[in-house]
Specification:
The chain contains 6 helices and 9 strands.
């Protein structure tokens, strides 16, 4: 099927999150440089003193030099070690989802990744258009070894953090797509990493499922009447105008 807006490209998935990840890292490095200006000179003398002591105990100058250098390298690492970059993590998850969705294109589906929402800093991770209609897929990479997904009293938690707000945002984004395209839009959260309680969850109007099940879930949806190639091309063109691709 020829689509006038171009094929969905997994290379574009996660582009906006990756850019914000680079911005976050640049700000972190600037803070580290400011810290290093006074921490590293202050650490030089104590590490030298420890090195001299080690040399006297060990009876060899090289031993003291190794000890002093090792301590100073440790201080440098503590100052400059990178923190968790949530945007970079998000970009990785979006690219994984794009790879999972890519085979659908050979079946005539249309994939639009990382689409901007005009007037907002938010973006649409993945718009998927196919025989069942339009599905908005939001990617979550929840892979912390210390945290897991839990459903308590109707609320989804990831570790200590409730996900009500995140799910409302997904509903809002799917609603924007529905208004712009003039058709119903399903909302799906594709989870990488953490196990989804019960395998699949429906919370409000949002389906939460493991990313590895996403392609099967989409294929199993009932085809929508009238969603032929011409209709898909029309919706894809409308989506491309309403939600332009992210431009770095």
């Amino acid at each position: 099927m020829a689509v006038p807006v171009g094929r969905g490209r997994k290379a574009g998935a996660g582009a906006s999150a990756a850019r914000r990840g680079r911005q976050q890292r640049a700000a972190e490095v600037a803070r580290q440089h400011r810290l290093g200006r006074w921490v590293l000179p202050g650490a030089a003398l104590p590490t030298l003193g420890v090195g001299l002591w080690a040399a006297s105990v060990g009876g060899a100058a090289w031993f003291g030099a190794v000890v002093a250098l090792s301590l100073f390298v440790r201080v440098v690492w503590l100052v400059y070690r990178p923190g968790r970059n949530s945007w970079r993590v998000g970009a990785t998850g979006e690219r994984r989802t794009a790879r999972l969705l890519a085979p659908l294109e050979r079946r005539g589906w249309v994939l639009l990744h990382d689409r901007s929402i005009p007037g907002s800093r938010a973006n649409l991770d993945h718009l998927v258009l196919g025989p069942p209609g339009v599905v908005y897929v939001d990617t979550k990479l929840w892979a912390s070894e210390k945290s897991r997904l839990q459903l308590r009293d109707g609320t989804l938690w990831y570790g200590r953090y409730p996900q009500d707000r995140a799910l409302r945002t997904v509903e809002w984004e799917a609603g924007l797509a529905a208004v712009a395209l003039g058709v119903p839009v399903r909302a799906v959260v594709a989870v990488h990493g953490a196990a989804v309680p019960g395998g699949v969850l429906r919370l409000g109007d949002v389906m939460v499922l493991p990313a590895k099940q996403l392609r099967r879930y989409l294929r199993d949806l009932q085809p929508e009447r009238g969603m032929d190639d011409a209709r898909l091309r029309q919706l894809a063109a409308r989506a491309a105008v309403a939600f332009p691709p992210y431009r770095p």
